[in-house]
């Protein structure tokens, strides 16, 4: 062998030995020195802790009827297998799930604090999407199909504003703080309640998630389960709502509105009604029309937003309306408590009256003749109450308005969004029109519920409840009790008195007697006279002036029943519903007939009897 060849062999052997030493050193480094690091990394790739979503608490009505429950549904999730997220995978999921790629990336960014946990992209997907993902499993690393509890609303549109819906939208800071006080720390991207009970009672409903340790393959699919921590279901809510009563009211309101629209009333389309227990503040029904289907809310959202009748607004608490003649008991109370009128004193109504340069009239200019305070309430005489308003003045009138809870929230805490409304007063006018004085003619308008007065249906129901119970303002409430998944009671609601309106017993008795006559012959609510249960109440027709002149008035009725020992107080408002006799009174009939049930002698409302109404 030549020396050159021998030299080449030696160089080759040296290189082989050197490479062997390098490889052996690297192998030793990886297997010995960095053993713990790479073992843990391999285990993290192989073993994952997969969250198990806790079933959300269910919601029941006062009779145990299940309103909201959970059902199994498929959720598409994306998990980081250690090398980040594939742009191709995100692009494909964007098309398949009909989501913007930006939206998917935002969800990923929100969950950066929980790397290696699934990023849930879309819940309740149909089986067709699941099948398409399953077919391409090997091409979609990190894409998971999870079975999760999905919220199911058993009665669709019924009580939708009360129950609320779920979502991943923005949560306001004050809500986060409220939840934190109740023990729940919100994390961005979590599916939470966005309205109604689902929002306000989120910390009680959500439960505690569990987890399961699984072995995954190279595509992130679970192939074996090791250890499981079961989730703790959320608490169940038992609410004060009477589902059947709620449905009767909702259906009746819809029928009345459809009837108005079929007659050419293009303004009609919104209505609300509240029924509560004047003995404790328990809300038995709270209807807001139009409503929306909670199960299809996300699909319907564009149409709901564009609907001119604003179905997403809870008309019972988030909207305020002119109070109309239902306000006249406030004027009566101010006059009685100030000693400005007695039960027997009479005031003459000639149909019109001119005071302070302003000419005012009764409804359609009807002349009632000589009336006492009972007859004035019964017939809703404007002239009588103009006089009572002028005698006491706007300051006294505003004072008693506030005593009845107008101008401030009633105190409902179980759902959010309650508005305070407006009390006609010098203070309010001065804010609206700087340096503009208050005129006596404006007091006349305010005394019959016109002017700046504006109330919510809940305020109106609370107002007549206070008349029924003698001045006690109970906090209205919707949640009766909270029960955990083991059946133990977590919370029971107790009646809470927020204020007490001091007034002479004789004043309460006179006002209640006047309201009792409203539904007797000669009263504006005579169409309720044939009910075996005596209803005390007050009709109202709140006039509205639009840009093109007068438009259909709002129809109102507020009252309670039975006359002796009242069990329910209620308020009905039909926006642009015209005469209360043809719209709101039929709703009251349905409320009373259903609640007291099995009444004999009830007759269905006959629209041909409209002429019986003597006033508003």
Provide a brief overview of the structure.
By secondary structure, the protein is α+β, with helices and mostly antiparallel strands. The chain is about 35% helix and about 20% strand.
Overview of this structure, please?
With about 625 residues, this protein is α+β, with helices and mostly antiparallel strands. It has three domains: about 5-35; about 50-240, Penicillin-binding protein 2a (Domain 2); about 245-610, Beta-lactamase, CATH 3.40.710.10. Helix content is about 35%, strand content about 20%. It is built from 19 helices and 23 strands. The strands form seven sheets. Strands 2, 3, 4, 5, 10, 18 and 19 form a seven-stranded mixed β-sheet that branches. Strands 12-11-23-22-21 form a five-stranded antiparallel β-sheet, sandwiched between helices. Helix 10 runs antiparallel to helix 19, helix 12 (about 330-335) packs across helix 14 (about 380-405) and helix 13 runs parallel beside helix 18. It is elongated and about 145 Å long.
Q: What is the typical, i.e. mean, pLDDT?
A: 87
User: And the CATH topology of the largest domain?
Assistant: Beta-lactamase
Largest sheet entry: 7 strands, mixed
In the residues, how many domains can be counted?
3
Low-confidence stretches: 598-615
Q: Write the CATH architecture name of the largest domain.
A: 3-Layer(aba) Sandwich
Radius of gyration: 34 Å
The backbone outline, from C-alpha atoms, is: elongated
CATH domain class of the largest domain: Alpha Beta
Helix-and-strand structural type: alpha+beta
Question: What is the number of helical segments per DSSP (H or I, 4+ residues)?
Answer: 19
Number of strands: 23
